[in-house]
């Protein structure tokens, strides 16, 4: 696969599975503790993320850093939005930083695992796959001086619809986003049953592909309702893509962290220190603050502590951040891409 990951084919799931299987298990024989991590990684310190290689010859110090952000909404918006940070990262590391657009969560994860992606923003749900299977080390989320920027799972319906509670959606057309999405699929499956609605039993789960497509689908009447990330819905309304007054929110969940920003575990420790410094010191210019809902900096987080609720949700619905789970996600995303291309 070329470095520029512009899309998936219907056979991408098989390609991904082969790529995962082809990596040499560096730690297979000498690692005493890896937890849920894949066999090519080790977690001796118990922080749930991959340790840097113990052999300095395996530390990577690329001349160019490849950066990307989770494939949500319009990719061009985020490519431009992160330009100031890319420039700052170049200043701090002394390395050229390039942005490559990815069209699926599976492609983004595979790119970091294979060594072609060095720093990236991963969606909340797929972060677990990135940690366990790609050696991603989350270090920050967007936020302010006081707190990280979170979001809620919200369920939207048309304002003039008769639906008032989740239980009213039994037998209706409800759009989830994608299998790996936290707010778009995993959290609804974990949280809705306590509200009297069981996804997959009380209604057929219809995958839209992305949060924005779920919102637009409800707006057009293709779906009766959709669980989506509150921050995505807010940004779409602020950009005038939809009118917030045309919708009604019938459910709001507790707060979740937004997309994680992570670096590859095997980067040279000196380079990692500079990357961490860049995330710590960078302040968002006004245009970035507008794009990201008032966030003005990267707020420090750890995967072990701040992704605990996300792992709990995944566990409650039987989701595993393993090769089979990622392969299933890749196949579903490939099928969606093929279907969209055919139409």
UniProtKB/TrEMBL annotation:
Top-level taxon: Bacteria
Signal peptide: 1-28
Gene3D superfamilies (UniProt xref): Periplasmic binding protein-like II
One annotated Gene Ontology cellular component of this protein: ATP-binding cassette (ABC) transporter complex
InterPro entries: PhnD (IPR005770)
Family stated for the protein in its record: Belongs to the phosphate/phosphite/phosphonate binding protein family.
NCBIfam families per UniProt: 3A0109s03R
Name of the featured protein: Phosphate-import protein PhnD
Organism per entry: Oceanibacterium hippocampi
Gene name as annotated: phnD
């Amino acid at each position: 696969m070329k470095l520029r990951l512009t899309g998936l084919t219907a056979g991408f799931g098989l390609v991904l599975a082969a790529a995962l299987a082809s990596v040499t298990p560096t730690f297979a024989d000498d690692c005493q503790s890896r937890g849920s991590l894949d066999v090519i990684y080790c977690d001796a310190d118990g922080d749930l993320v991959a340790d840097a290689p113990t052999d300095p010859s395996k530390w990577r110090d690329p001349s160019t850093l490849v950066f990307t952000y989770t494939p949500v909404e319009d990719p061009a918006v985020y490519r431009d939005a992160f330009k100031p940070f890319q420039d700052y990262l170049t200043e701090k590391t002394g390395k050229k930083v390039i942005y490559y657009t990815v069209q699926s969560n599976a492609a983004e994860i595979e790119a970091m695992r294979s060594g072609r992606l060095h720093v990236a923003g991963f969606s909340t749900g797929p972060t677990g796959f990135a940690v366990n299977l790609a050696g991603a080390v989350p270090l920050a989320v967007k936020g302010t001086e006081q707190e990280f920027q979170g979001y809620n799972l919200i369920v939207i319906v048309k304002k003039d619809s008769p639906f008032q509670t989740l239980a009213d959606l039994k037998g209706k057309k409800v759009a989830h986003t994608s299998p790996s999405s936290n707010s778009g699929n995993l959290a609804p499956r974990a949280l809705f049953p306590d509200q009297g609605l069981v996804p997959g039993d009380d209604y057929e789960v219809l995958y839209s592909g992305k949060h924005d497509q779920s919102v637009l689908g409800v707006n057009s009447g293709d779906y009766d309702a959709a669980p989506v990330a509150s921050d995505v819905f807010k940004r779409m309304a602020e950009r005038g893509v939809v009118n917030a007054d045309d919708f009604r929110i019938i459910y709001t969940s507790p707060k979740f962290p937004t997309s994680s920003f992570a670096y590859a575990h095997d980067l040279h420790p000196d380079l990692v220190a500079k990357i961490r410094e860049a995330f710590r010191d960078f302040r968002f210019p006004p245009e970035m603050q507008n794009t990201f809902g008032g966030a003005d900096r990267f707020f420090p987080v750890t995967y072990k502590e701040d992704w605990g609720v996300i792992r709990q949700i995944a566990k409650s619905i039987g989701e595993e951040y393993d090769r089979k789970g990622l392969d299933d996600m890749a196949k579903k995303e490939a099928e969606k891409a093929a279907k969209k291309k055919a139409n």
